[in-house]
Design brief:
This protein is an alpha/beta fold and about 375 residues long. The chain folds into three domains: about 10-110, no CATH class; about 165-235, membrane protein fhac (Ubiquitin-like (UB roll), Roll); about 240-340 and about 360-370, Rossmann fold. The protein is elongated and about 130 Å long. A six-stranded mixed β-sheet has the order 10-11-12-13-14-15, covered by helices on one side. About 30% of the residues lie in helices and about 20% in strands. The protein is built from nine helices and 15 strands. A hairpin with a 2-residue loop joins β7 and β8.
């Protein structure tokens, strides 16, 4: 036969069920005595005191209920002062019942934990301090390091930008041949006593724009107080007649200074004067002159063009150079340089010497012609 079912022990609430008889209070504790009440042949109901709702009594009761073992007799307790109803108690429910239900779900009440932390609990209670996670400490240290570095950089930049110890005291120029150094020093005088890190390329370009001979520049700071300026000057390629004198011009037609004696300047003369600046023929002629090496440019007397595709050059010794259009200018310049500097042919076997060359035709540089 199957083993008969064991009776279950159910813990009731501290309140007296409706219709049940009130038991006489315990003489020692003053609370109603816990008396088993039989409700059926198989179920026995045992009331649980309200004071034992929290603590070990509940855990022992739950263990007994699960195992089915009978409850062990409890030791007598000292009488306690009546408790006020907790704020957590629900409407119509005794304080012990509500707290018993909450203890079963979430552990000891907050009041008990607070009492232990403030020293109001049992003797020997300790407060556990959980350490901060390591990754949070590392993250905080990293942020502090970044913030400290940023502050240091800000201070250094402020000192560099505004410190009078880095003020410009000297400006040095390199690459200038057409313009005197004193002229350039006077031009950039507003930069003196300005902090060196505050001097920009735009500031220097704006000041040097007043000097037409300067085409471009670049700056280099040399702490603590020196500014080095590398200048690129415009290259004069021709002379233009202006009244009683001449002026030197570059490929763009920018005037680079006056000349009192044309014979002392090894540059060709472009016909038309300053009125020719900007015309298509002027741009074609100056482009050809800018391509020629200085060894050839110094031997030219004048340059002219009937059209941009028909440029001709006149040499000092009376020879003519037929250049043609603007195609293959670098190759034409190399061929012309070779023809001009080539030695004169030597007669062979008593033949008469060749007539001197009067025309160099490099309009077709792969097939140059001399005549």
């Amino acid at each position: 036969m199957a083993e008969p079912r064991r009776p279950r022990i159910i813990s009731s609430r501290s309140g007296t069920p409706k219709g049940a008889m009130q038991d006489a209070p315990d003489q020692e504790t003053g609370t109603p005595a816990a008396k088993a009440r039989s409700t059926s042949p198989k179920v026995t109901v045992t009331p649980v005191p309200a004071d034992d709702a929290a603590g070990t009594g509940n855990r022992r009761a739950r263990t007994d209920k699960e195992s089915g073992a009978p409850k062990s007799p409890k030791a007598p307790k000292a009488p306690k002062a009546p408790k006020a109803q907790s704020a957590d108690a629900g409407p119509g429910k005794p304080d012990g019942t509500w707290r018993n239900w909450r203890n079963l779900r979430s552990g000891p009440p907050k009041a008990a934990a607070a009492g232990q932390s403030t020293g109001g609990g049992a003797a020997g209670a300790r407060v556990l301090a959980f350490p901060e996670p390591a990754h949070k400490r590392r993250r905080r240290r990293a942020w502090l390091g970044v913030a400290g570095t940023a502050v240091v950089l800000a201070v250094v930049m402020a000192l560099a930008l505004f410190s009078p110890a880095l003020a410009v005291k000297k400006v040095t120029f390199t690459g200038n041949r057409l313009v005197a150094a004193k002229t350039l020093q006077a031009t950039v005088a507003p930069l003196l006593d300005r902090p060196l890190p505050q001097v920009t390329q735009a500031d220097v370009d704006a000041l040097l724009a007043k000097v037409p001979q300067i085409k471009s520049s670049s700056i280099e700071a040399r702490p603590p107080s020196t500014l080095l300026v590398h200048v690129v000057e415009r290259v004069p390629v021709a002379l233009l007649k202006t009244g009683a004198g001449w002026i030197r011009v570059d490929q763009d037609g920018v005037a680079l200074g006056k000349v009192a004696d044309q014979s002392k300047v090894p540059l060709p003369l472009i016909n038309g004067g300053t009125a020719a600046i900007g015309t298509p023929t002027f741009r074609a002629v100056t482009a050809v002159l800018a391509t020629l090496p200085q060894s050839v440019l110094g031997k030219l007397a004048s340059a002219s063009a009937k059209s941009p595709d028909a440029v001709e050059l006149q040499m000092v010794d009376g020879k003519t150079v037929v250049w043609g259009n603007a195609s293959d200018m670098v190759l034409k310049a190399q061929v012309l340089d070779a023809l001009i500097n080539a030695p004169a042919p030597v007669p062979v076997n008593g033949a008469p010497p060749a007539p001197p060359v009067k025309v160099y035709d490099v309009s077709a540089p792969l097939h140059p012609v001399t005549r």
